[in-house]
Amino acid sequence: MTSSHTHKWGLRRASSTARSHAPGEAEGKQALSVTGRAGFVARGVVYVLVGALALQIAFGGGGREADRQGALQQVAAQPFGKVMLWLLVVGFGCMAIWRASEALLANGPKNKVGSRLLDAGRAVFYGFVCWGTASFAAGSGGQSGSDAKSQDWTASALKLPGGQVLVGIAGCVLIGVGATLAVRAVMRRFLRKLETGKMSRRVRQAVTALGLGGGVARGVVFAGVGVFALVAAIRFDPHQAKGMDATLRTFAHTPAGPWLLVAVAVGLVLFGGFSFASARWRRL
What we know:
By secondary structure, this protein is mostly helical. The protein is built from 9 helices and no strands. The chain is globular and about 55 Å long.
């Protein structure tokens, strides 16, 4: 066999090998897509429930904490609650896996170091959420809520060398994250990640409203938690730190009265709806 024939045969074999790998790659991408969509559904369920609990607080019926722990308690109280809890565990696990895949396998604009690190951080966060939800579903219902956890973490951090500065930095970061989330929502940056071409005009308007209202409310909550962390650092008092529940309750004691809490609570429900829309139309 001549060298030219050998070269052509090698090219045909390489091409054939590439084609044989293509279906496997497509299946893997499809699996990750399903994984990500399951994660958005789980996120949506929790945000809708947290928003509903916050509305109850605003109108004087706040029995459960308006945070992820309160949402899980709400789920557990429903028929087939245990099954629903384990489905949430699977959903959050899927979200962690999808975020990790984005950090490791991202291409194009997502290939930047900053984007990869952000997705890695999200993967770790949802990994903890998955673990906490699994612990609750397995019967560890006595887990502390967001307020107690925030104070415990703040107290532990303040005991470290330079802990006051670390807590202050963490507060500033949360404030910055909250402001970024709100600004991006107002600028409708979230539409870039959605397949808007597959939506009708009315559906796009509805999804835009969900993303705008939900993103601003989510940003306000993040910033509020950050403000209390910063106050805790300045006063060197871990009891000044607040989780989501206490932060939401604080909104009811502003000059705007309970209506600010109502607005934020409705926004959290909207963000839950936006998460469901992301499960349907997000580019994954």
